[in-house]
Amino acid sequence: METVTIDNRSDFALWAIERAKLIVSEEGTALALAARGADDTEIGQAGNALGQAIADAMLEVFDGLMNGVAED
User: Is 70 domain-assigned?
Assistant: First the structure.
C-alpha cells in the first residue's frame, strides 16, 4: 500500500474521499451483486466485507496518527 503524507485537513479530506471511492467500488459492488441475487448468506458476507474495509481504513488512519507517539 502506498504511503500518503497528510499535513492538513484538506489533505485528509482528499485522502478520505479517494479511500471511500476505492472501498465502495470494491466492496460495494460485491454487496450490490449479492443483493441482486437475493442470497442472504452472500449479502451478509458482502456486507461484512464492506464493514471490514471501512474499519481497516479507520485503523490505517489511527495507526498513521499514532506513528511516533510514545506509548504509555
Answer: no
Tell me: pLDDT of 72 over 80.
no
Predicted structure pTM score = 0.63
The answer as to whether 6 is a domain residue is no
How many angstroms separate the CA atoms of 71 and 1, rounded? 25
Alpha carbon distance 45, 35 (integer Å): 11
Segments forming the whole domain that contains residue 46: 23-61
d(CA 59, CA 23): 14
Q: Cβ distance 47 to 38 under 8 Å?
A: no
